[in-house]
Specification:
The protein has 3 domains: 42 residues, no CATH class; 213 residues, no CATH class; 45 residues. Helix content is 72%, strand content 0%. It contains 17 helices and no strands. Helix 3 runs antiparallel to helix 8. Keywords: Membrane, Transmembrane, Transmembrane helix.
Length: 376
């Protein structure tokens, strides 16, 4: 499999791609580096990860664990081993010899019905190529495929792709869509939605390209083509490589979500609309708090009015206050009209000799004390 990958991505191919895409990608990379340095210099201090971003990371962690489990050959859903590698057989080894060796790995050294069915189909080099490329199920179960057709490889590819490639990539894209959904994962993860989706689509395209273009025998070594070494199976290799790539990709996605949600990297200041929304949200919360406090005061007032003892006490207070005001007025006017009181009020209104910050703190403490417990 490693030789196949190297043949697909040789130095000549990489050099051609760099020459073609270099003039487009290099300026973008330089601009990204400059923007990254500016953001790094003006980033705020790291913060605790928000709860919404934490949900996205939990989903990604669960997906990584599942994909890593599927990438292990001993997992319950792993395909049966490649019979050529298992028995040490070559591509030109007679079929009876291959399955006689395979019987040694079976209970009581007896072939199963599935082994016998595979032995009846694995009689030609073309059938063995299909087995190595698309697996035993495609060779045995495809109803519209035929080895004698000129387009047999395309038919087997169309049979292989839906359940083996398309469905896993669709599930992977569904996970990426969930962890970048703003209502579920928040704005910090949602900003990566286009990047993660594009990366998932690129993985799918690469998977389809490898399955359609790679020939296990044509890309194998000369010893394998000459029938001197057992051939490797693309079907079995991709069954384990595909979930492993998903796990690595999701690990990178989780790292990006974490560093952006905690403002360690990739921090972008909130836009003017976001700032306005934050101010409106804070104002709404403040108004709701005041409304709850006023409601508490109203409840307390209603309790006073409905209770005879408290109502009598309240009436006595106001009668005493009116009587004191009347006495002050009979002696030369209201106390609020006194010259000294007017000067003191003027100084207080103009802020002279008054610590407004401390006054605000005292007023807040006072209101909190008298309304404590009324919200419930």
């Amino acid at each position: 499999m490693a030789q196949a990958v190297l043949s697909l991505f040789s130095w000549g191919t990489i050099k051609s791609l760099l020459i073609f895409f270099g003039p487009v990608l290099l300026p973008r990379a330089i601009n990204f580096y400059r923007v990254f340095r500016v953001q790094l210099a003006h980033r705020p201090p790291p913060r605790q990860i928000p709860s919404q971003a934490s949900r996205a990371l939990n989903v990604l962690f669960a997906a990584i664990v599942v994909f890593l489990t599927l990438s292990v050959p001993i997992n319950p859903h792993a395909p049966a081993p490649n019979i050529f590698s298992q028995t040490g057989s070559r591509i030109t080894t007679p079929t009876d010899v291959i399955f006689a060796r395979l019987a040694r790995f079976r209970p009581e050294q007896t072939l199963t019905d599935y082994d016998k069915l595979l032995r009846s189909a694995l009689t030609s080099t073309a059938a063995r190529k299909i087995y190595l490329r698309y697996g035993p199920d495609a060779l045995l179960s495809c109803q519209f495929c035929g080895l004698d057709e000129s387009s047999s490889a395309v038919s087997y590819l169309l049979y292989y792709l839906p359940w083996n490639s398309v469905v896993p990539h669709l599930l992977h894209l569904l996970i990426l869509g969930l962890v970048t959904s703003a209502p579920f994962a928040g704005a910090d993860a949602a900003r990566w939605r286009n990047w993660f989706t594009a990366g998932g689509l690129m993985l799918a395209g690469l998977d389809f390209y490898v399955m359609g273009a790679y020939d296990p025998l044509a890309a194998a070594s000369a010893a394998v083509r000459a029938g001197q070494q057992p051939p490797s199976s693309l079907f079995h290799a991709m069954s384990f490589v595909r979930p492993l790539v998903f796990a690595l990709f999701d690990s990178v996605c989780a790292g990006l979500v974490y560093v952006s949600a905690t403002h360690r990297f990739f921090f972008s200041p909130p836009s003017q609309a976001d700032q306005i929304n934050q101010l409106v949200t804070k104002a709404t919360e403040a108004l709701a708090t005041v409304n709850r406090q006023l409601h508490g005061v109203s409840v307390a007032r209603n309790a006073v009015v409905r209770d005879k003892t408290l109502k009598a006490r309240d009436d006595w207070y106001w009668r005493t206050a009116v009587a004191m005001e009347g006495e002050a007025g009979s002696s030369g006017g209201s106390v609020w009209e006194d010259e000294e009181v007017v000067r003191a009020m003027s100084r207080a209104m103009s802020g002279q000799g008054v610590d407004m910050a401390q006054l605000g703190v005292s007023a807040g403490e006072y209101v909190g004390d008298i309304t404590r417990g009324l919200d419930t």
